[in-house]
Amino acid sequence: MNVDELVAKVKDLISSEKFEEAKKFIEEHKDELGDKAHELSGLFGDNADGLIDKVKGFFGGK
Hints:
Helix content: over 70%
Number of helices: 5
Largest sheet: none
Number of strands: 0
Strand content: under 5%
Mean pLDDT: 79
């Protein structure tokens, strides 16, 4: 998988509210994700209420 595919997988997991799976996936692929791993992991620093809005902004959603 390339970086874009990995990010898309994380996006899919998060949009499906599979937060623990998303965290695990990021951790397992942190080397391939490079700088994106840190950005994606940072999404989980907030509480769950603001997470979806933050993710939408990260991925260019509305």
